[in-house]
Fold this sequence. Notes:
Distance between the termini: 47 Å
Low-confidence stretches: none
Mean pLDDT: 95
Shape: globular
Oligomer: single chain
Largest sheet: 3 strands, antiparallel
Amino acid sequence: MTLAHIQQSIEGVTRYFSEHPEKALSTDKAATAVVEQGLRCVATGPGGETLVSDMPKGIGGAASAPTPGWYLRAALASCDATVIALRAAQLGIVLSRLEVTVDSVSDDRGILGLGDGVPPGPQSVSIRVRIAAEGASAEQLHEIVAWAEAHSPVGDAVRRAVPSRVEVTLV
Length: 171
C-alpha cells in the first residue's frame, strides 16, 4: 500500500466516523481455542484464521509452538508498529525503518498459584521502538511514537483494566 492510499483510507474512515459516531462501536471477531493435545491449543477465527500455542516442556507442554504469552507480546509489538506506521502515513512521513520489540518480566509462580499476590501475568512490559525517516526530526518521530502508544488498541488492552466476564457451559 502506498502512503497516499493509507492517507486516503484514514481520511475516509475519519470523516465517516465523525459523521456517524454510532457506527464506530463494533463487536470484534471472536477467537475460539481448543485444546488439541496436552497443552497444545489451536485458536481459530471466523475467517479460518489459526494460531497454535503450546507451553514449555518444563510445565508439561511439548514446546511445539509459541506460548500464549509470546503471542500477547507479538500482538502488542505488531499493533504498536501498525499504529506508528499509520500515524506516520497520516502525517505524510515515509518511514525508512520501523522495528518494535516487546518483552516482559513474569513470575512463573503466578500461573501455578504459588505465593500470595503473585500475578499470573507479566509484572512489567518493555517496548523498544527503532524508527527512522528521512526529513523527519527526532521530535516528530518521538511524537508519532507517543501518539501511537496512546492509540494502540492492544497497548490499551494491556494497560487498562478491561471489563471481562466468563460464561461456563457444561457439556
